[in-house]
Every structure is written in structure tokens, then in C-alpha cells.
């Protein structure tokens, strides 16, 4: 089931960007009023994302759903039909490329996410995978939908709702002891986990002892994750998140090393999944 659908104003802006003053070719050929049908199909295996937006883009231009529609999050095989739309040729051509490209890019993110999740859970069925806020600016709502469809969660939706202390923050803390920093954050934001990003094993253990809820281990190999986990006291509640360079090729190794969470940006850079579109007169 789709987690949500992008709002109409955003979809309208996409259509307006591609067809700001009408479709010159369709107008010049005088074919805009003719009835037609447009069918979207997966060219290869994919985790689908964006079918609901493609339908809504069509509806915003007067098109009608002309058959079943597959839901975002479904796994498709090559040749599977995603949806079909019917209506006037002018509307079909106005919606065509925007809808096709949106499905392709979002399905690329969703499919990549699903691959990382599957690899991680081969190493630890209980591990969580979270995707960073490193999506291309302006695409957050669409990218996060794709991440959710791929089985992961957002790492940070924004700076406004998470506590993640980087070395760049700590540069301004002077001589404040780590335990005092953690206590201050817990006091100010009592309902939030305090996450501390660290770059070496010794620093990780200092912040674990200071009471950090989550240690975010940046660009450390799986062997270092394992050593940190072994060095933590028995019964410690601090969770360990591995971040930096996490992908489907190494996710299983990080999971087996003892990471509780994998933090990745890789899905945002995944290639689109090809979608075939056919338009016919009816």
C-alpha cells in the first residue's frame, strides 16, 4: 500500500514546468481532441513507486483510469502493466513524460532501498535501515515516499525534529564534558534520542559512557563496529548506527558486525528503472 500521495500543487507544478504554454506539436498537428489510451509497463524487475502520482497527473488533465493500477511498494516483473489512462490526445501527451519519468526515478530509489534492506536483513533480520536527508533539494516528499516503499525509514526528515551532534557542533562546546552535553540535550528535548556521530573507536566509547542513545559511526569498517560493540558494557542500551558508504554490497557485513541501524544515502543516487509507455488512438 502506498504510504501517501504527493499533493496536487506539487503535481501541478511538474506539469506546468513541462507544458507551460501548451503542447506545440499536438496543437500544430490538430490532433488534441482525438481519443486515445496510454499504458505504462515495467521494462524490468522493480519495486514500484509513483503510480498514484501518475494517475493523479492524468486526472488533473481530465484523463481517466482505464484498467487496474499497481500500488507503490509492489514488486513488478518485466512486462507487468502499471496503469493505463484514457482521454484526449492533448492530455495524454501533456502528462506522458512527466508521469513516466517520475515513476522511473522513484522506482529506482525504491528498488535500491529494497536491495539494501534485503542485504542487511540477511545479516540481521531485526536491523533497521534509514535513508539520510541527502536527497536532491526540492524532492524530499517524493524521495521519502520511495524510501518507505523500499522498506526503509527516513533518517532525518529535517533539522527541526532530530538531535544529531556532529564534530562540527562539538567544535563550539569548549571544554564541556560529554556527559554534560548529553544531559543538557535530554533536558531540552526529553522525547528525542540523542545521536552522536563519531569517527574513531575511542571517541565512540567516550560518548557511549556519557549516555548517548545512539552512536553514529561514520565511515568505520565492519571490524571496527564489531570491536565497539564488544567493548560496550553488558546490557548497554546505546544503539549503534553505521553510516557512510553503506550499500547493498556491504550491508550484510555491517549487519553481521552488530550494527543496530544502517544509515545510507545510496538509494538517492540509484539509476532510474525503465518504464515503457505506449500511446494509441482508440
Description:
Helix 9 runs parallel beside helix 10. The chain is elongated, with a radius of gyration of 23 Å. With 282 residues, the protein is of the alpha/beta class. 40% of the residues lie in helices and 20% in strands. Helix 8 links the parallel strand 9 and strand 10. It has a 7-stranded parallel beta sheet. Strands 3-5-1-13 form a 4-stranded antiparallel beta sheet, with helices on one face. The protein has a two-stranded antiparallel sheet with strand order 2-4. It folds into 2 domains: 8-115 and 270-281, Alpha-Beta Complex (Aldehyde Oxidoreductase, domain 3), CATH 3.90.1170.20; 123-269, Aldolase class I (TIM Barrel, Alpha-Beta Barrel). The two termini are 32 Å apart. It has 10 helices and 13 strands.
Give a quick summary of the entry.
The chain has helices spanning 8-18, 24-29, 51-60, 89-123, 140-149, 167-170, 178-188, 201-209, 222-231, 251-257; strands at residues 35-42, 46-47, 64-65, 75-76, 81-88, 128-131, 153-154, 163-165, 194-198, 214-218, 239-243, 261-264, 275-281. Helix content is 40%, strand content 20%.
SSE layout and pairing:
Elements: H1 8-18, H2 24-29, E1 35-42, E2 46-47, H3 51-60, E3 64-65, E4 75-76, E5 81-88, H4 89-123, E6 128-131, H5 140-149, E7 153-154, E8 163-165, H6 167-170, H7 178-188, E9 194-198, H8 201-209, E10 214-218, H9 222-231, E11 239-243, H10 251-257, E12 261-264, E13 275-281
Parallel strand pairs: 6-7, 6-12, 8-9, 9-10, 10-11, 11-12
Antiparallel strand pairs: 1-5, 1-13, 2-4, 3-5
Helix pairs in contact: 1-3, 3-4, 4-5, 4-10, 9-10
Amino acid at each position: 500500500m502506498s504510504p501517501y500521495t504527493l499533493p496536487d500543487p506539487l503535481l501541478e507544478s511538474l506539469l506546468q514546468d513541462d507544458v507551460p504554454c501548451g503542447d506545440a506539436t499536438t496543437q500544430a498537428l490538430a490532433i488534441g481532441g482525438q481519443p486515445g489510451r496510454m499504458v505504462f509497463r515495467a521494462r524490468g524487475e522493480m519495486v514500484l513507486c509513483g503510480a498514484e502520482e501518475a494517475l493523479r497527473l492524468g486526472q488533473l488533465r481530465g484523463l481517466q483510469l482505464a484498467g487496474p493500477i499497481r500500488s507503490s511498494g509492489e514488486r513488478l516483473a518485466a512486462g507487468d502493466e502499471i496503469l493505463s489512462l484514457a482521454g484526449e490526445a492533448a492530455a495524454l501527451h501533456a502528462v506522458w513524460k512527466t508521469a513516466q519519468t517520475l515513476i522511473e526515478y522513484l522506482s529506482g530509489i525504491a528498488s535500491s532501498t529494497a536491495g539494501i534492506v534485503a542485504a542487511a536483513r540477511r545479516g540481521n533480520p531485526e536491523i533497521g535501515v534509514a535513508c539520510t536527508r541527502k536527497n536532491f533539494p526540492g524532492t524530499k516528499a517524493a524521495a521519502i515516499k520511495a524510501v518507505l516503499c523500499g522498506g526503509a525509514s527516513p533518517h532525518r526528515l529535517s533539522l527541526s525534529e532530530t538531535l544529531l551532534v556532529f564534530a562540527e557542533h562539538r567544535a563550539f562546546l569548549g571544554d564541556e564534558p560529554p556527559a554534560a552535553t548529553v544531559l543538557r540535550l535530554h533536558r531540552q528535548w526529553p522525547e528525542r534520542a540523542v545521536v552522536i556521530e563519531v569517527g574513531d573507536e575511542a571517541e565512540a566509547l567516550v560518548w557511549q559512557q556519557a549516555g548517548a542513545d545512539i552512536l553514529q559511526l561514520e565511515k568505520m569498517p565492519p571490524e571496527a563496529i564489531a570491536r565497539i560493540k564488544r567493548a560496550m558494557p553488558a546490557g548497554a542500551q546505546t544503539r549503534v548506527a553505521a553510516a557512510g558508504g553503506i550499500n547493498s554490497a556491504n550491508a550484510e557485513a555491517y549487519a553481521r558486525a552488530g550494527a543496530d541501524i544502517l544509515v545510507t544515502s545510496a538509494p538517492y543516487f540509484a539509476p532510474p528503472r525503465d518504464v515503457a509507455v505506449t500511446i494509441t488512438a482508440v
